[in-house]
Structure formats: C-alpha cells, structure tokens
Q: What sequence folds into this?
C-alpha cells in the first residue's frame, strides 16, 4: 500500500510532474497575492491613496508578489519531482 494509504488502481498513474508544478505555482500565487494585498494595502493607505490609485497599486502589488512567490514555489516543486 502506498504511503498515502489509498491504493491506486492498475493503469492509473499519479499526477505528472507538470501538473505538480502548475499546482505549486497556483498555491504560491494565491499566497503571494494575499500577502501583496496586505502589504500593498498598508503601504497605499500610508501614502494616502484612494480610489483608482489605490486599486491600481493593489493590483500591481498583488501581481508582483503572487508572480514571484508562485515562481519560487513552482521551481521548488519541480526540484522535488
């Protein structure tokens, strides 16, 4: 029996390495985007941004943090494949 405790049927493989890397990127992007929202939001409020400027700053911070942390998680997952 595999370590997970759930036996696999004959002919069914697990996830491919590419699927695992995609999942790692997705999880990293979500964590990074939420962190970017928190830190970018505090910084934007500190600078006194409101309205469209606030939204633009938050989207940029979320995209940058999510993208960078997603790439790190994807690379880490690829190394483990």
A:
């Amino acid at each position: 029996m595999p370590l997970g405790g759930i036996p696999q049927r004959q002919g069914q493989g697990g996830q491919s390495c590419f699927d695992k890397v995609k999942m790692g990127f997705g999880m990293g992007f979500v964590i990074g985007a939420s962190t970017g929202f928190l830190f970018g939001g505090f910084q934007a409020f500190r600078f006194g941004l409101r309205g469209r400027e606030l939204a633009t700053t938050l989207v940029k911070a979320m995209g940058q943090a999510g993208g960078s942390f997603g790439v790190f998680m994807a690379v880490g997952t690829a190394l483990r494949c």
Notes: Helices lie at 17-47, 52-80. Residues 34 and 71 are 15 Å apart (CA to CA).
